[in-house]
Amino acid sequence: MRRVILPGLAVAVLLGCAPAPQTTTVYERYEQLKNGPALQAAAAEPARRMRELDWMVGDWRTTITVFATAASPESRETTTTSFHLVGDSILASDDLSTILTYDPFEHDWISAGFEPPMAPLNNFRARWEGRRLVAEAPARIFGETFVLRQSLIRTGQNSFEILNEQRVKGDRFVPVDRYSFTRIVKPPQPPGQ
Questions:
Q1: Element (H, E) at 164
Q2: How far does the signal peptide extend, from start to end residue (predicted)?
Q3: pLDDT confidence of 152, banded at 50, 70, 90?
């Protein structure tokens, strides 16, 4: 259980949302709660909720479109992305640039992005809005704060996209880039190979 408590506490401190001083340590509180049905149910929930997104696991052809701005034309590149289910999280690629997991205490999804040096750590809390998993939060990029909205949308059995938008003047969101994923289907291997 320590692997759940300490990382969660560290993320809270990093995000600047540390709770008021407590009268017990986190381990004393764990000892008080560990045999209770509420904590047991919460500890089991992330594994169950990850099944909602296990379709993402595998290799994907990824087309990244950066939309045109006043200063630059639209650009597009294609790469490969691998998603892995590790414990109660989905990791994007081997560089750990994105981690997606479920918080059973707040009942929402957490997307954490690590892209140093430009965007060393950004965390978003997300909720389902229809068929979209939507996260909106301030993000630190280039040492500046931008308000971003990210939508994960399953577009088919073997396709999905992530649309990133930014809040601009007039309190409206404009699309900045889109990641379109198409599953790489590997042909079956003949028996004995």
A1: strand 159-168
A2: 1-20
A3: very high
pTM: 0.77
Identity of the amino acid at 85 = L
If one counts every other C-beta atom within 10 angstroms of the C-beta of residue 135, the result is 23
| Rg of the chain in Å (alpha carbons) | 19
Condensed to tens digits (0 to 9), the pLDDT of residues 79-135 reads: 999 999 988 889 887 665 788 899 999 999 988 877 776 666 777 888 888 788 999
**Segment 155-175, tens digit of pLDDT:** 999 999 999 999 999 999 999
CATH number of the domain encompassing residue 57: 2.40.128.20
Q: Is the dihedral of CA 147, 82, 177, 79 positive or negative?
A: positive
Count CB-CB contacts under 10 A for residue 118: 9
* Domain-embedded: residue 141: yes
For the chain, the domain total comes to: 1
C-beta of residue 110 within 8 angstroms of C-beta of residue 150: no
Is residue 72 scored above 90 in pLDDT? yes
Per-residue CA distances from 63 to 74, 80, 182 (Å): 13, 8, 9
Is residue 20 in some structural domain? no
In a domain, 136, yes or no: yes
- Shortest CA distance to 74 belongs to which of 64, 60, 84, 59? 64
As a whole number of angstroms, the distance between CA 114 and CA 70 comes to 28
Domain that holds residue 61: 36-183
Percent of the chain with pLDDT strictly greater than 70: 84
